[in-house]
Amino acid sequence: MRAIVYQGPGTIAVQEVSLPQLEQPADALVRVELAGICGTDLHVIAGDFAGIRPGAIIGHEFVGEVIAVGGAVTRFRVGDRVMSSDFTACGHCHWCNRGDHWECHERAFFGTGTSFGLALQGAQAEIVRVPHADTTLALRPNGCSDEAAILLGDNLATGWAAIERGALLPGEIVAVIGGGSVGQLVSLSAQAAGAGAVVVIEPSESRKAFARAHGSLAASPGEARVLIDRLTEGEGVDLVIEAVGAATTLSAAFDLVRKRGRIISVGAHASESWSFPLAKSFANELTLGFAIGDSIRLRPRLLSLITTGALDPTVIVDRRVGFAGAAQAYADLKLQKVMKAVIDPRI
């Protein structure tokens, strides 16, 4: 079968690879109908994560059709059209029972090698093996498009997790640092959760224009504090969401938040350390947290928002390609010429 394979830092290629097989009774095989390209994938192919090795199939966002199931799979049968979380979890351990599936000791993150758990081949392929299928997969309901299901598996779940972890109250003011796909979905999630105003902070003119067209205010990093001071009478925002995954943008959040405010980071960080503004955080009683999207936990809630039309994440998808166009889509995403690209292996 064909798949997109990591060859080394900065290099990917479409290659013929061996077909995956059922390895455990709880496995399923899914024929991929659509796979997403995520900002995290840019970190993967750049070699930022030590756990990825040449020859690994990349990608962690997908929807498709079940073509085989192991003997322990009870929720799905061959022919079911399914969506997936971007990582697997056993579904019955202490962490899974709490709804904290990311902390499951059997977690495996598709297409990232051993960077975040057990190694598992990725989903930018014609067929993908899905461990713990009964937990990892879900049926795609009517009213949820393939693109929406892709986004619910990672980017939208991440955006909503940021708002959930930030304990947003109706009417509060939110600043979102980063206007990529996750940042824009954080903004849409905040609006759906009742934010009084959302400010997307982003240097790209096209991404600022996108944010304004979809209900938020927007400012460049140099303009942000002036706008925030006008909105908050100089106090700072209630909640800052950092959606880039860089030490510089996380540090910038501390200059935007009010006293006793909250900062939540959902960017994929690769740096081992960061200089924390300890005295300022203590004096201002700030709260700093991190959040990773958990589609397994959040699917029911987010599916309700999508199928009722309360939230449409698909507005961020602006390119659909086959395998032949994947390398260019990756390059354009890195250059911020694309907001969100998806790959159709059937093209």
Topology:
Layout: E1 2-8, E2 11-16, E3 28-37, H1 39-46, E4 62-69, E5 81-84, E6 87-88, H2 94-97, E7 108-109, E8 127-130, H3 133-136, E9 137-139, H4 146-152, H5 155-165, E10 173-177, H6 181-192, E11 197-201, H7 205-213, E12 217-219, H8 224-232, E13 237-242, H9 247-253, E14 257-265, H10 278-283, E15 287-290, H11 295-307, E16 317-321, H12 326-334, E17 340-343
Parallel strand pairs: 10-11, 10-13, 11-12, 13-14, 14-15, 16-17
Antiparallel strand pairs: 1-2, 3-4, 3-8, 3-17, 4-5, 5-9, 6-7
Helix pairs in contact: 5-6, 5-11
Keywords: Metal-binding, Oxidoreductase, Zinc
Organism: Bradyrhizobium jicamae
Domain Enoyl reductase (ER): 10-343
Our count of domains comes out at 2
Q: Which architecture of the largest domain would the CATH scheme give at its second level? A: Alpha-Beta Complex
Beta-strand percent range:
25-35%
Number of strands: 17
- The CATH topology of the largest domain corresponds to Quinone Oxidoreductase, Chain A, domain 1
Poorly predicted spans: none
The CATH superfamily of the largest domain appears as: Medium-chain alcohol dehydrogenases, catalytic domain
Please trace the helix and strand order, writing H or E for each element. Answer: EEEHEEEHEEHEHHEHEHEHEHEHEHEHE
Radius of gyration: 20 Å
Tell me the structural class.
Answer: alpha/beta
| End-to-end C-alpha gap | 14 Å
Given the structure, what is the number of helices?
12
Helix content: 25-40%
* Mean pLDDT metric: 96
| CATH domain class name of the largest domain | Alpha Beta
What is the molecular shape? globular
Largest sheet: 7 strands, mixed
